[in-house]
Write a structure and sequence with these properties.
Blueprint (H helix, E strand, L loop, with lengths): L2 H20 L5 E7 L2 E7 L4 H7 L3 H27 L3 E9 L4 E8 L3 H7 L6
Antiparallel strand pairs: 1-2, 2-4, 3-4
Organism: Thermanaerosceptrum fracticalcis
Protein name: DUF2294 domain-containing protein
């Protein structure tokens, strides 16, 4: 597997998690890799129900957003480890509702390059 294929697999898994949790895919996403770290920058359209509530009750939507972030991170870690077979040490995510931009930061147990070298016949 090449680094480009690895990035595509990360994007596929990330979009699948978003579909499962939010009921919608991503408008776009970009993946950057630096040693054992992966950064995903994506456009997540705001859920219409949250947008409607946010204007009247920001505290409620903030709590819902926080709960969704926790569940997203749990699912992403589980799906990455199941599909890629590379241990995830941490997943961090933040989302800006005003711009609908999210970033996800993943730290793996080993560098992506080392993983790909060791698993040259790895298939997604």
């Amino acid at each position: 597997m090449l680094i480009g294929e690895f990035k595509q697999e990360i994007m596929r898994i990330n979009n699948k998690v978003n579909l499962g949790l939010y009921g919608q895919g991503l408008a776009w996403q970009k993946v950057e890799i630096l040693q054992d770290k992966v950064l995903i920058i994506a456009n997540n359209k705001r859920l219409h129900a949250l947008s409607a509530i946010d204007q009247k009750d920001n505290l409620t939507t903030t709590l819902i957003d926080y709960g969704l972030l926790i569940e997203y991170k749990r699912r992403l870690k589980q799906d990455l480890e199941s599909n890629i077979k590379l241990k995830v040490l941490a997943v961090m995510k933040d989302y800006d509702p005003a711009t609908e931009i999210a970033f996800t930061f993943i730290i793996f147990e080993k560098t992506v390059e080392k993983f790909l070298e060791e698993n040259h016949n790895f298939s997604c």
